């Protein structure tokens, strides 16, 4: 909590510092006083672990950008205290030129005043972006501040060997999913003669809002939402009939059916990943980024990837991914724009999907590109179809993090304490969300 407060204070200082700067690059936030130099090296920050395969994939992608355009760029990977370090640079009026960060950070970064507005007419390849990617790049004021370049959407990973052992098929609806989960829990699918398997892996921890993050797949498939609205007018929505139905169904998997792995309310993703790959749980709703790991640890022949089972409303699943953010005050605005344009070009999208361990591009956001153009693995097509047909980004509001955290606290409590009343807890949650939306200045009145 201390770190978060320190970061918030630094961001406040940084925002004031930027606001006090009477000029910035043309085409961006803040005026026209920064002298431009198209030969200036673009400083690119990527939110990932230094020395990781992800960093290597990004550097490879940026090197391809340099060869294709002639601009120079330098990549810095930062994971720990990313926001604090960015705020410090903002306070020094010396932001990096480009930041590669999660799409969910757009609202926060834009409200801090550290991004410049992007004119899509200058980003020629933006005309081929998916509709949901274009929407995810807009802030509450309707203007574009980010260009999503890589997407990921969830699908259902399921133990195919367990299905075969029990004579079952992969579920296509929630009812079928619950039936398979019960069979995986009660009928010894691994044949070891022990009662040690469960139907569904769930990261139900409050840490970083994981319980809400995971539950969103089911909430949206039921036609519900955490908040509803658009622009700067939003209302809480967790007491809607659809939200109550989704929450009750999800909670009953734990409290009535008993098909969720033990300890789920205290687990974030690392132990939940282990629950699936070690044979404790037989189903897991997650993204394509887990396949390289599961292929190695579990074996590609032991599980399959299928569309997430259809809920009461549809098959909506969580969509996420990386976004190119063009920072305010750059001395090389043309280079910034060229980077954003190249990163979503067919050439870059295909090149970024190459590899085996880490990818600069998980799923393409350019509609002219198919994942099958690069990867000879039909499982990736399942994920791409999920993104294009059912992908649902979190709403772009000034700060999504507190909304996710508040809802995670409630979902976690319902999973951990089966005596709690679902409707009562969701009513309390809506009250908290109302206060948060009011604080952010976007409550519909």
TrEMBL record:
The lineage of its organism: Bacteria, Bacillati, Actinomycetota, Actinomycetes, Micrococcales. Keywords: Cell membrane, Lipoprotein, Membrane, Palmitate, Signal. It holds the Pfam family SBP_bac_1. The keyword Transcription regulation does not apply. CDD domains: PBP2_TMBP_like. It comes from Microbacterium arabinogalactanolyticum. Coiled coil: none annotated. This is Sugar ABC transporter substrate-binding protein. Residues 1-24 form the signal peptide.
